[in-house]
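User: Could you check the structure of this?
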Amino acid sequence: MTLYQQIAEQTGQLIAAGVLRPGDRLPSVRRACRSHGVSAVTVMQAYYLLESRGLIEARPKSGYFVRARLGQRLPEPRMPRPAAGSAPLQVSDFIFQILESVKDRSVVPLGSSFPAPELFPFPQLGRFLAAAARRLDPRDTVADLPPGRAELRRQIALRYHARGAAVAPEEIVVTSGAMEALNLCLQAVTRPGDVIAVESPTFYAGLQASERLGLQVIEIPSHPREGVSVEALEEALRVHPVKACLFMLNFANPTGALVPAARREALVALLRRHRVPLIEDDVYAELFFGAEPPPCTRALDADGLVMHVSSFSKCLAPGFRVGWVAGGRFAPQIVRQKLTTSLATTVVVQDALAAYLRHGGYDRHLRRLRHELARGEVALVDAVERHFPPGTRLARPAGGYFLWLELPPGADALALHQAALARGISLAPGPIFSAQREFGRCIRLNFGHPQPDGPDRAIAALAALLREQLAAGGGA
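Assistant: Sure, the predicted structure tokens are below.
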């Protein structure tokens, strides 16, 4: 950790232990400089980091004070109990209907699946893209087939190495976004009619891919903070012929759950015993709010059973549609699937991203992005706690840009979605995150779109609609 991260971590531990309590004043910048033997810039960076996490607040002409902890006035959502057994999927029409309704740019994008475009370095990326186009050898446009451009795969392998995972460039397959990578992985290890395990709730794109491939899914309950239940998965593996697991272990969409290291180790060991591959959708791993990144599952995989999927779409370049999969023992099958579907991923974009990773300040961009997302999370949680009615539950994520809410009894997420759209506000209703259309009282909100006046106005309007619905007995 850097010096400012160390100071922030020490201060955060004092707050967590109750040594520093809400309302206590932190040492002035000058005093903190003397105490830690660092510059004023370092102290301010530490205080900014603590502020972005919602632990402290600045008061004009008074300094920094410990803030009353957010996220403690509302309890966590309950652990789901999905229906037992596997089932065929019929979700795409339903999901498309919901997603089509949130494309209007005039709508407050609380239901969006991406952060705000303003948070990404598009001017710099544009320059790298132009330079890559000028340098392109025309023969590469027809000769560069999967697994992808060597330099981009090398840069990705270096980032795995930094997270403690020995991933060779040769097993990395560049794809047209994470969605294609998920499809290729599923095609490599399943056949129509096979059963796969997914989390409950789960990201709807995985359900759509499974439906397209004719798969059946069994839903494994997922804790809103700690992720998929290893105990429930163990029982499912004992009873059902599960061919693969499709999970998000880092800041899962929609809950934001982060599987702790010990639970993750138990999960990998369980799958190793049953020889069941894991497809890990890990597109949010770079968007952590703390000082350290989340655990890297590939670092635990000694058997090549983990197919690790990620993308630049959520953290660097939305619209470039470049993702990848570190395929482990399944890399050759994934390459063959790629060759028979989309053939190759755009060469110029691959070269531009490789150059940006090598020279463009990717980690500086990520630090700024994490800071903005952490600030957005604090603001959204604060607004929800102040405006939503009693009975609301939320889980505070440690990264990503989604907040998962369980609404009070009597609420109807789909009806709230329709009423909110009529008022120019989008949200993602819970049923799109379930094969069985469960979570009828849950919604996902995006805090990655900073509003000029903060989220207060939109959340107050949403809360008013919810109160009206509850007063009317849960009707639309």
